[in-house]
Structure formats: structure tokens, C-alpha cells
Amino acid sequence: MDLVDLISEKRFIGQEVLTWLWWKSEERGGVVALPGEGDIVVVFEKHMLLEYGEGDSNESLICRGLQTELQEARTGLLMGKKLEQARIQMVYNDYEWNFTMAAALMEFRNVKLPKTGGESGNNDNPEEREGMILERIFLFEELNRIVLELLRLFLQIRVGAEWREELQKIREWISRAERAR
Amino acid sequence: MGFIKGTASYVRFAVEGELPENIWDFIADRVVSFAFRDIDETYDEDSLGWVSVSNMFDTDFDYASYASGNYVTLSMRLDERKVSGAIVKKFVQKEEERIKKEKQIPKIPRSMRVEIKERIQNELMRKALPVPSVFDLCWTLENGTLLFFSTNKKAQALLEDLFKESFVMTIIQQIPYLCGEHMLEEEGADKLVQITPDVFM
Questions:
Q1: pLDDT digits (tens, 9 = 90+) for B159-182
Q2: Could you tell me if B68 and B106 lie in one domain?
Q3: Chain B contact for A176 (CB, 8 A cutoff)
Q4: Any idea which of A43-47, A110-114, B131-135 has the lowest mean pLDDT?
Q5: pLDDT at B95 over 60
Q6: Does A146 touch chain B (CB under 8 A)?
Q7: I need a surface site. Which of A67, A94, B33, B60 has the fewest CB within 10 A?
Q8: Domain range holding B175?
Q9: Residues B115 and B179 in one domain
Q10: Contacts with B, A 51-70, CB within 8 Å
Q11: Contacts of A78 (CB under 8 A, 6+ apart)
């Protein structure tokens, strides 16, 4: 299968990961336990985009607001829409990233890296400049590594026997959104 | 942008293919061979090539400025001459009116109209100043992955071509499914092929 077909056929995986992660983070009040890493703060905030259907019949729903106001987005899930984009705050080892994940293609958008002391360095000095670049690369790579570990965690469950149970919990969480309206 | 400063948007690619033993010599040679060539003083429609991430006018890469530790950091620069359709239409009509008046004819034959449009387009293109776009990348040699700092599909397609031409290696965008193929054990990866969308409500 060529990449274009693969992207179209498998775009649901990214959307399922993001929806699962939203539930997973809310399950423990914004904290997700990552095996081998410990607790990671994952907060869905401010901005979400949900999709429904494919091709010409594709519909989208944009929801904005604080975390507690994302009720509308959960109602969207109840209508069968899938989470395609979300603004996420992630905190790990004293580093805080803010980024928008576009799920189907796994695009990292508007990534705000953690603040570090190295940003005020002298850019004309080649050594300091390289140091600054290496630091930024480290922070990008660290974000990628954590996101990939979360993806791995989801996929291991998704292809495993425990998925049915996990799916049932997600469904209950989504249906609670309806009852809370 | 955003790789060096500020907020960033990017996608991940896997680099597929074998690097030669003398990696840095190979990269040095290829980066310079496919460096960006300026078209400000020519009539070329566009130009695509590598520049330094810190300076879009640096195509010499002194002291291997593209090497940061075990990473290759480069910018892909595209300069394009563009003329809007409305401008072409206006000048084609103007020229057609001039010819009709000069030759005292009520209508211009189709073949001549095609020729006029082509000529005007070329003239306008020559007058247009090349518009630059710069896209950063960071290639991790250790694990064969690449971050490309743009979510623009056209830029990604250009990168795929330029990277292949320069380094004789292919880059493949890492969508969640492909990441899963790499990350899961054999049995899990086999199951991944078969999964279909689930209903979450």
C-alpha cells in the first residue's frame, strides 16, 4: 500500500490515540502513568478540533475554552466525532511543553518548548549558538520520545486483550458527558 | 521555522537507506553540491537547495556549520518567481487591445492569443522578484529520523525530492500507524495491520 492510501486508511489510529489520551489524562486528574518513566502531567486545554466522516462528507467541530469547558467536545464524541486536534500541556521532569497535536498525521504544531537558561546566550558566538541548538534539539527529542511512549502504551493495549475493557471505560466516560449536560 | 527560535511546528520522518562509512565527508560533499543557487540575477523561475539554518545567504557552510553533535541541521530554501493570475490577465488584455487597434482587426485569432499569453507570462515572470521561503530540518544520524519544521504539504513534497537527490536516501513521514509498526513486537505489529476503527460511543 502506498503512503497516501496508508495515511487515509489508518488516520483513525492517530485520532483514537488522542481520544484515548484525553480520557486517560482525565481519569487521574491530568496525570498519566507512563511505564518506566513515572507520572506525566498531560492536560487537554483551550482548543480542540473533532472530525466526523471522510472526504466530501467530512465535518469538523472546533471547541475552545478552558479544560472544564470542554464539555461540548465530549458531546461531540458522543455524536460519533473523533478528536483530530488538541492543545496539550505536558509536564515531565520539571520541563513543560505546550503543543497542538494534529492526530491523523502526528503533526506537532505551535510547540512551545520548556523555558531554560540557555536562551539568552550570545548568538554570534558559534559555540554558544551550537549549545543553544543542541539544547533545543534535546527538548524537541524529549517531547517526541514521550509522545511516542504514550503511543506505544496505547497501541499495546489496542492490539491486546485488554482493549475491550479499556474501550468500555472510555464509552462510560463519554456517556457521562451526556448525563452531565 | 521555529527550530532555532520561538514556537515550532514540525513533522517526523524516518530516513531509509544506507549511509556510507565516511558519513561526514559524504554529507559535506552532498550539502555543498545541492546548496541553494541564487536566481536574483537570472531569469530562472525557481531555485531550490540547502542553506545554513542560521543564515539563508550562507551556502558555503564554513566549518561544517550544518553539523551539531550527531545531528545535521539544514534549511531548505526555495526562491520562486510568481505572477498572479489577475496581473497576467490584465496585461494580456492590454496587449490584445493594442494589437487589435494596430492591425485594425475586430478579433484576435486563437493561435495568436495563445502566443500573446505565453509571451506576456514570460515577460512578467522575468520582471518578478524571486520570493524566498526557508524550511528548517534536523536529521538525527544515530536513529535515522528527521524533523522537518513545516506542516506545509508542498514543502514536504519538495523536501522528499531534494533529500533523495542530495543523499540518495528516502524519507517517509511517520504517521502513528508506521510508528506502531516500528515500536510493537512482531505479534503486535501483525495485529496492528488488522485493526479497524472502533466506535467510542
A1: 999 999 999 999 999 999 999 998
A2: no
A3: no
A4: A43-47
A5: yes
A6: no
A7: A94
A8: 11-37+47-81+133-194
A9: no
A10: none
A11: A174, A175, A177, A178, B201
Q: Are B177 and A108 in contact (CB < 8 Å)?
A: no
Q: A41-90 pLDDT, tens per residue? A: 999 987 888 887 766 667 777 877 665 556 777 778 878 888 899 999 99
> Is B174 touching A (CB cutoff 8 A)?
yes
Instruction: Flag whether residue A106 sits within 8 Å of chain B, measured between CB atoms.
Output: yes
Contacts across the A-B interface (CB distance below 8 Å): 126
Q: Is residue B64 part of a domain?
A: yes
Q: Any chain B CB within 8 A of the CB of A36? A: no
pTM of the model: 0.90
